[in-house]
Automatic annotation (TrEMBL):
The lineage of its organism: Bacteria, Pseudomonadati, Pseudomonadota, Alphaproteobacteria, Rhodospirillales. Residues 20-260 form the ABC transporter domain. This is ABC transporter ATP-binding protein. It holds the Pfam family BCA_ABC_TP_C. It comes from Pelagibius litoralis. CDD domains: ABC_Mj1267_LivG_branched (cd03219). It comes from the Bacteria.
Length: 263
């Protein structure tokens, strides 16, 4: 752990504010209650998994946090600031990032160009009409992120030619652009091979300590290895919270979600 990373995390934690606070958050779609009275706090730098069966409300929870589908009731705070009524792009400016279940990439561009555009898109010069030179800081940042997600060998490949696993790695690089403070990963291991899942966990575990994240994941092995705390959801509500070990060994969790015989 570098000194700069430690200092960044200490500053965030020393401010005495949570990275994320949800206060009595609910989301209704007509008569359907997708989220019901969610109270959740995530510390700065914390890595949390949100688990639950299909329909438990996990993705709706992410949508409420990001502003894609704002809460029907309740409040959302990022690093102490109430962002409940702010649009998505304003939450991004405050350090929130998200990946989606379906890859959202520029297939006709190279890997490095995708990362560069992400870096440029969150910079103050994103609307400049001046053509950037090769000394543009966004190029250097893009190269750093390329290495962080283990895609050096695919640098100049078109995104359309990447494997599904490589595209998932690229999405993480895009989410890292622009100094994020909290990232929401929506099923990043979906469709990956066992080898690719192992590499995904390595990438997540090596992220800078001041960057916290919440991961939705159906693969329990990935989720429990990548997280230090776990929130279980059921029918739009928080069902259990604890450490990976506590959740894995909880009889009610095993009956509800893991199934009998889970070791």
């Amino acid at each position: 752990m570098s000194t700069s990373r430690t200092d960044a995390l200490s500053r965030l934690q020393g401010a005495g504010r949570f990275a994320l606070e949800l206060e009595a958050v609910s989301r209704h779609f007509g008569a359907l209650v997708a989220l019901a009275d969610i109270n959740l706090t995530v510390r700065a730098g914390e890595r949390r998994a949100v688990l639950g069966s299909n329909g438990a409300g996990k993705t709706t929870l992410f949508n409420a946090i990001t502003g894609d589908y704002p809460p029907t009731t309740g409040r959302v705070r990022l690093f102490g600031e109430d962002v409940t009524d702010l649009p998505v792009h304003e939450r991004i400016r405050r350090g929130l990032r998200r990946t989606y279940q379906i890859s959202l990439l520029f297939d006709g561009l190279s890997v490095i160009d995708n990362i560069y555009l992400a870096c440029r898109g969150v910079s103050r010069r994103r609307f400049s009409l001046k053509r950037p030179g090769r000394d543009d800081s966004a190029f250097h940042t893009a190269e750093t992120l390329l290495s962080a997600v283990h895609l050096d060998d695919a640098r100049d490949m078109l995104v359309a030619a990447l494997s599904h696993g490589q595209q998932r790695q690229l999405e993480i690089a895009l989410a890292l652009a622009g100094a994020p403070r909290l990232i929401l990963f929506d099923e990043p291991a979906a469709g990956l091979s066992p080898t690719e899942r192992t590499e995904l966990v390595e990438i997540l575990q090596s992220l800078p300590d001041h960057i916290g994240y919440i991961i939705i994941e159906h693969d329990m092995d990935v989720a429990l290895r990548a997280a230090e705390s776990v929130t279980m959801m059921h029918n739009g509500r928080i069902f259990k919270e604890g450490t990976p070990e506590e959740i894995e060994n909880d009889p009610e969790v095993q009956e509800l979600y893991l199934g009998q015989g889970h070791g």
